[in-house]
Design brief:
single chain, globular, 324 residues, Rossmann fold, seven-stranded parallel β-sheet, 13 strands, 37% helix, alpha/beta
C-alpha cells in the first residue's frame, strides 16, 4: 500500500520497541508517519520493513519520514521541512522517553528534562500548530505501591521514583493544555509491556526480554527481590491497538490503564520462560532494587468503555511470539 498522501502522524520514539510497532500499524492504516528518534535506545532495524533497498540506498517507504531528533530539545525545527512539503501534522503519539526506573533514581535531573521536558515540547507544538490529537505513553509507575488490587485510574497517585513523578507531571501538563489551550490529548498508563523487538541487551529493558534471552541460552535468570512481586504483563500488539484508538477523535482528557487485568509473580514468569525455552536455566535471587513496586495489576474497564479495546493476547502466546 502506498500511504504517501495519507494524514500525517508523528511518533516520537518511533524507532523504539513500542514506537516501531505503532509505526507499522499506522502506515498499514494509511498514515504518512514521521518518526522522531534520537537513537539512544531506538534502532533503525526496528523499522526495517519500511527501510528497504527498493526505496533506494538509505531510503525509506514513501509512507515513512525518519528524522533524528532529541524531542527534549524541541520538535518545531525537525518537523518544519516535512510540514512545508506535505501539510500539517494531524496526530502525535508521544512515546519518546528515558524508560528505566533504576536510571531515573540514579539521574533524576536527566529523567526530568527528557521525560517531562519532552512532553512540554510536544504539547507546545500541538498547541501552536493545531494538532488534532495527542496520545501520551504514561505508566503504571504513577501509582507507586498500591495495596488494593486491581489498580483503577482513580487510585491515588503516589509515585516512588523520579520516572513515575515525571510521567505524572506529564499527565498534569496534558490536562493543562487540554483545559487551557484546547489541545485534545489522551494519556494511556502502560503496565508491563513486552513483545518482539524489546532489547534484552539494554539494562533498561523489560524483565521478559531479559529472561527470555537468558533462558534461550541456558543461562541463569536473576530475580531482584524475593520473586513474589507481581506484574500485569501486556503484549505490545494490544498496547498498539490502545494507542491507535487513543489517536482517534474524542476522549480528550481521558486517562486509561493499558493492561490485561491479571497478574503473575516474577518467579512464576521466570519458571514459565525456562520451561518454554527447554528447561536448562537456573533461577537465582538478588537484593531488591530501589524504586520498584511490589504488586501491579490493572483495572481495565475504562480502556474497554472509552476505546473499545481489550487485551486479547494470552501471556503464554505472547511469550512464545517474543521468544520466536
Amino acid at each position: 500500500m502506498s500511504s504517501s498522501s495519507g494524514p500525517i502522524a508523528v511518533v516520537t520514539g518511533g524507532a523504539g520497541f513500542i514506537g516501531s510497532h505503532l509505526t507499522d500499524r499506522l502506515i498499514e492504516l494509511g498514515h504518512r508517519v514521521v518518526v522522531l528518534d534520537d537513537f539512544r535506545t531506538g534502532k533503525r532495524a526496528n523499522l526495517a520493513r519500511w527501510l528497504t533497498p527498493e526505496h533506494g540506498f538509505g531510503g525509506a517507504s514513501p509512507a515513512l519520514e525518519l528524522v533524528t531528533c532529541d524531542v527534549s530539545h524541541g520538535i518545531f525545527a525537525a518537523l518544519a521541512p516535512i510540514t512545508a512539503k506535505y501539510g500539517r501534522v494531524e496526530r502525535i503519539a508521544h512515546l519518546a522517553a528515558q524508560v528505566s526506573v533504576v536510571s531515573s533514581v540514579a539521574n533524576p535531573l536527566v529523567d526530568m528534562s527528557v521525560n517531562y521536558g519532552g512532553t512540554l515540547h510536544v504539547l507546545e507544538y500541538a498547541r501552536a500548530m493545531g494538532v488534532a490529537k495527542v496520545a501520551f505513553a504514561s505508566s503504571a509507575a504513577v501509582y507507586g505501591d498500591v495495596s488494593e488490587m486491581p489498580v483503577g485510574e482513580d487510585t491515588p497517585t503516589r509515585p516512588v521514583s523520579p520516572y513515575g513523578i515525571d510521567k505524572l507531571a506529564s499527565e498534569l501538563a496534558l490536562d493543562y493544555y487540554a483545559n487551557v489551550h484546547g489541545v485534545p490529548a489522551t494519556a494511556l498508563r502502560f503496565f508491563n509491556v513486552y513483545g518482539p523487538r524489546q532489547d534484552p541487551s539494554s539494562p533498561y529493558s523489560g524483565v521478559i526480554s531479559i529472561f527470555a534471552d537468558r533462558a534461550r541460552a541456558g543461562r541463569t535468570l536473576t530475580i531482584f527481590g524475593d520473586g513474589q512481586q507481581t506484574r500485569d504483563f501486556v503484549y505490545v500488539g494490544d498496547v498498539v491497538r490502545g494507542l491507535v484508538a487513543a489517536l482517534g477523535d474524542g476522549n480528550s482528557r481521558t486517562v486509561a490503564n493499558v493492561g490485561t487485568g491479571g497478574e503473575i509473580t516474577v518467579t512464576e514468569l521466570a519458571r514459565t520462560l525456562v520451561e518454554l525455552c527447554g528447561g536448562k536455566s537456573a533461577i537465582e535471587y538478588a537484593p531488591q532494587r530501589a524504586g520498584e513496586i511490589l504488586r501491579s495489576r490493572a483495572r481495565v474497564d475504562r480502556l474497554r468503555e472509552a476505546f473499545g479495546v481489550v487485551a486479547e493476547t494470552r501471556l503464554v502466546d505472547g511469550l512464545r511470539a517474543t521468544i520466536a
